[in-house]
Amino acid sequence: MELLMTADMIDAGEAYRLGLVNYVVPADQLLDKCREVLNKIIANAPVAIAEIVHTVNAHYDKQSDGFKEEIARFGACFTTNDFKEGTDAFLNKRKAVFAGK
Predict the structure, then answer these.
(1) What is the mean pLDDT of the chain?
(2) Do the beta carbons of residue 61 and residue 27 sit within 8 Å?
(3) What DSSP designation does 44 have?
(4) Contact between residue 59 and residue 66 where contact means Cβ atoms under 8 Å apart
(5) What is the DSSP letter of 93?
(6) Cβ atoms within 10 Å, residue 53
(7) How many domains does the chain have?
(8) What are the residues whose beta carbons fall under 8 Å from the beta carbon of 96, sequence distance 6 or more?
(9) Which domain does 90 fall in, by range?
(10) Can you give the pLDDT at residue 90?
(11) What is the pLDDT of residues 28-60, one digit of tens each?
């Protein structure tokens, strides 16, 4: 709250400490860090990632109820083949292979 009220400038380290950013890396390591995070994201179920993006976007849509969208989208993930694959992979202690369906 203080940051909003005072409009104080902060550096990257302080932004990290406050939880405003996830990582602070030197400029020459930025693309490598982006690729690392992207690879973690794309290892997950594509349908679930798409539903997350939709839900976040719904939060900013004045015509939408973000909470209702989140509930609906979360529930929809349970009916996918990727959900079944993820559950089976977890139970059998193996890496999931998601098909995006």
Answers:
(1) 91
(2) no
(3) S
(4) yes
(5) T
(6) 11
(7) 1
(8) 45, 82, 85, 86, 88, 89, 90
(9) 43-101
(10) 94
(11) 999 999 999 999 999 999 999 999 999 999 989
